[in-house]
Amino acid sequence: MIDFVLLISIFLSRVVINTFPSPEISAESAEVYEHQKMSLRCTLSVTTAVRWSWYCAGKSMSYRDISNNNRSSTLNFTVNPEHDNTYCYCRAQSNSRNVLYDEESDRQKITVIYPPSDDLKLTHESRTSMAVGNDFTFVCSISTMGNPPISWSWKCGEKTLSKIWMRNKGNVSKIEFKAESWQNGEDCFCMASSTKYSYNVSSNKQTVTVYYAPVDFPDLINKTHVHVEENSPVVLHCRVSSAGNPRLYWSWYCGDHVMEKGASFGDTWSELTFIASKQYHQKACYCRLQSWSNLVSYNKTSQKMFITIKSDHTCFSVVTFMTTTSVLSTFLVIVALIILIKNVRKRPLNLQRCIHFHGLFRNSRCTAPPQPKVRQNDDRTITFIEDHTYEVVQSNEKKKRKGTSL
Hints:
Elements: H1 2-14, E1 16-17, E2 24-27, E3 31-33, E4 37-43, E5 50-56, E6 59-60, E7 65-68, E8 72-78, E9 86-94, E10 99-100, E11 102-104, E12 108-113, E13 121-124, E14 129-131, E15 135-141, E16 151-156, E17 159-160, E18 166-169, E19 172-178, E20 187-194, E21 199-202, E22 206-207, E23 209-211, E24 219-222, E25 227-229, E26 233-239, E27 248-254, E28 257-258, E29 263-265, E30 269-275, E31 283-291, E32 299-301, E33 305-310, H2 318-345, H3 349-357, E34 373-376, E35 380-385, E36 388-393, H4 396-405
Parallel strand pairs: 1-10, 3-12, 14-23, 25-33
Antiparallel strand pairs: 2-4, 4-8, 5-6, 5-9, 7-8, 9-11, 9-12, 13-15, 15-19, 16-17, 16-20, 18-19, 20-21, 20-22, 24-26, 26-30, 27-28, 27-31, 29-30, 31-32, 31-33, 34-35, 35-36
């Protein structure tokens, strides 16, 4: 027992127990881009002979670029994505047997800025050929999201698809969107981007096919008059707002006639030119647009337009009608004047003058009509007016007066 106590006393007389503080760690920048140098420094508050060592992400950094002295140590190393979100620290140990010192610094968090290292991969969970209104489903994936994490987006052609159709979960982005006519023949793909490290990458592309038809009826207009002379050209034009897929087919009709000649076609229009003849008189002309495929249903006709053929026997122009009416009115006035003049001439000339002009021209040449001539006999009076003779029987009173006078 005495020997053991003696040994302890001798040891304590030779060893100085550590009273130094722990090393302090610092970094030039705790956020470093991938493949750039990271510099960490540990410092003691006093100068003493110590042995330095470094650890990052749980691994020893002894083979790195390290510079040491009795008061500080500096670690320089190139960062990579493995160092992101890890911790580094230093350790100081006394080199003297007489000093008992072994301390570690605080942990320094390392943030590495880096983009994804592999390409985006696009797959599809639905068919790539759809009729309008059905759903396309595509999925994009990548092995790492980078730091900071990438942002997802989707495009078809040059048009960006709405984010409301996207479902993002970690390194996978999924989109479901309705098939629309404008998407037909477009390449759809996903994009990953980050402004932090100028990253903007697109996936492989998938061409989609959309089956569709116009939403409206064909609209018929006339490029020439439809009230035309016989043998004049008639031009009719039909159009719709959009084409169809598969292709739609135009046809023309006038009454019961299928107009196979004179028709030209486009995806959204058709034009018919024909020569007006009597067989088209009062016939209703129209166009039809229809699908011959079972992939889309469309069979619609335009409004109808009636063709009227002018004829000298059946129709008059407005000018001709007005001229004819004027001539007939003048003729009727002349006839009426002739009849009136003939009736007036049947009366005696002097009577005509007095009746018609006496009130206007009072002169001596306007004489009264001839007065009756009276011839008296004993018991009767005879009156002569021109060629007619009238007998007037006198009353008894007049006879007495006559006898008295005699």
